[in-house]
Inverse folding.
């Protein structure tokens, strides 16, 4: 979709410094949540520009986090990740190399094995050691036990229930949470347990953040939420992604492809199984995040509520 870039302090200077200007063709890539992603084109030259919104009060700066984590993955897994070309703190813009390819339309076992191999390779001992030396932080919504993941889901529920009931759509969302999500989470409250060793997680990991190149290899995008996290949560979230949930045989293929590689061996399957219902609650509420943002128009919120209800009512694969 052709568009113009939003007005942003320092953006014209940042663009000029990278050899771009307002006359070049600009297209928006995807709807995005808070941040805008744009394709810039001039002849055969292409680049992707991501513009981060200001950090939310009390939350970490996603711009700085993405610069750190994408740079780390690009260094350690360069053939699988687009290069970060430049970034600018004033405009909060990041330029990435454009990857020629397309979205994965049909998930096949070969793609599943590629995703699993990327996770295993990015958790090799030497990569983990460099991650510790680099000071890689925790991933978004990270945890090392089922109890911590449950608490995270409850925090999201409290935030949504704390949003105002400004109209019938918001009231419907509140009623949905109180009648469906809140009882489900109450029933899922776990007993205390020991923490497990964490892994290096891309976090928002799934086919919605993958480009399939012409040679059928996959390129991985969006490390805004990456960092240290529970391996079982990484697997559960991948299985449950609302944009492209996996069929049961693909779930099995993914877990088998991870094998016994540290940190994905041991009791991974059992822990994923215990996490799936909690993470499904969380993903349903992530779809509803727009209700915490007053600038979002009512028709968008209505569409998200329909999507969240449909996702919540869908069946989850067995593990």
């Amino acid at each position: 979709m052709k568009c113009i870039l939003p007005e942003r302090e320092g953006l014209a200077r940042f663009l000029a410094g990278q050899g771009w200007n307002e006359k070049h063709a600009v297209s928006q890539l995807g709807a995005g949540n808070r941040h805008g992603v744009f394709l810039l084109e001039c002849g055969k030259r292409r680049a992707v520009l991501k513009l981060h919104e200001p950090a939310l009060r009390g939350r970490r700066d996603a711009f700085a986090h993405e610069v750190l984590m994408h740079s780390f993955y690009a260094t350690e897994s360069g053939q699988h990740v687009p290069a970060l070309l430049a970034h600018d703190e004033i405009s909060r813009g990041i330029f990435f190399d454009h990857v020629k390819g397309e979205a994965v339309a049909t998930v096949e076992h070969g793609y599943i094995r590629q995703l699993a191999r990327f996770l295993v390779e990015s958790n090799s001992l030497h990569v983990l050691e460099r991650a510790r030396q680099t000071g890689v932080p925790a991933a978004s919504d990270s945890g090392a036990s089922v109890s911590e993941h449950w608490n995270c889901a409850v925090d999201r529920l409290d935030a949504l229930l704390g949003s105002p009931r400004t109209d019938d759509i918001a009231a419907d969302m509140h009623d949905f949470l109180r009648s469906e999500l809140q009882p489900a989470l109450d029933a899922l409250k776990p007993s205390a347990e020991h923490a497990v060793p964490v892994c290096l997680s891309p976090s928002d990991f799934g086919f919605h953040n993958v480009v399939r190149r012409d040679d059928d290899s996959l390129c991985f995008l969006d490390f805004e939420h990456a960092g240290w996290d529970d391996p079982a949560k990484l697997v559960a979230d991948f299985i449950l992604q609302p944009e492209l949930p996996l069929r049961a045989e693909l779930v099995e293929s993914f877990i088998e492809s991870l094998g016994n590689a540290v940190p994905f061996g041991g009791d991974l399957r059992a822990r994923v199984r215990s996490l799936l219902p909690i993470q499904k609650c969380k993903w349903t509420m992530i779809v509803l995040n727009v209700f915490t943002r007053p600038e979002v128009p009512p028709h968008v919120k209505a569409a998200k509520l329909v999507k969240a209800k449909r996702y919540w009512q869908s069946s989850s694969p067995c593990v």
User: Anything to note?
Assistant: The first helix runs from residue 11 to 17.
